Amino acid sequence: MTDVPDEELAEAKRQLAANSVNPMDLKKRLAFELVSQFHSAEAACEADIYFSKVFQKREMPKKIPERAVSFEALKARLPAQPIVYPPSDSTPLNIVDVLWTAEVVKSRSEAKRLLLQGAIEVDGERVTSDTVSIRNGSIIKLGKRRFVRLVDADRKRGG
Q1: How far apart are CA 152 and CA 119, in angstroms?
Q2: What is the model's pLDDT at position 80?
Q3: Structurally, how many domains does the chain consist of?
Q4: CA gyration radius for the chain?
Q5: CA triple 121-54-44, angle to 5 deg
Q6: Residue 84 and residue 35 share a domain
Q7: Pairing of strands 120-122, 146-152
Q8: Tell me: the pLDDT tens digits for 75-125?
């Protein structure tokens, strides 16, 4: 599917067989070629930079999809919480309910499995309990590749 010359492909096979090349380099080259053909060289460069930052360097992506959920409705599902003074800008919520309501997972079972595997982070902190403090704008990371920013639907934008 690429325009890479046959000689170059044969050389890549020899390098792989001799363990003289990092397979990731060849995969990135292939990805660049495919994205260039179906989109553009510029899109391929952007995809390469994104992959390097997010997956190799484990940095936060710049564009994170937002999901609006009612923090009040989710809070009502929890047992009564003690009043905290001074007031905090975060709200204790059940992470399984949050993920399900925000439609980040396909089922509550998937959310529970991710929680048990330690594959959920909220604002950079690994979640180890089903109740977690979440604030308006919190970033949830599921596994290595999924990110979502939570927006409190009960608050007015910018408020």
Answers
A1: 23
A2: 65
A3: 2
A4: 22
A5: 150
A6: no
A7: unpaired
A8: 888 776 655 554 457 788 999 999 999 999 999 999 999 999 999 999 999
Indicate the Cα dihedral angle 153, 80, 104, 59, nearest 10°: 90
d(CA 111, CA 142): 9
Q: Are residues 44 and 70 in the same domain?
A: no
For residue 32, give the amino acid letter.
Answer: F
Q: Are residues 147 and 80 in the same domain?
A: yes
Q: What global pTM score does this model have?
A: 0.65
Domain that holds residue 100: 66-152
Kindly state the tokens that stand for 131: 């109740």
143 and 71 housed in the same domain: yes
User: What is the model's pLDDT at position 49?
Assistant: 84
Q: pLDDT of 23-76, one tens digit each?
A: 988 888 889 989 999 999 999 998 888 888 777 777 777 789 999 999 888 888
SS3 readout for the chain? CCCCCHHHHHHHHHHHHCCCCCHHHHHHHHHHHHHHHHCCHHHHHHHHHHHHHHHHCCCCCCCCCEEEECHHHHHHCCCCCCCCCCCCCEEEEEHHHHHHHCCCCCCHHHHHHHHHCCCEEECCEECCCCEEEEECCCEEEECCCEEEEEEECCCCCCC
How many whole angstroms separate alpha carbon 104 and alpha carbon 101? 8
| Amino acid in the structure at residue 68 | A
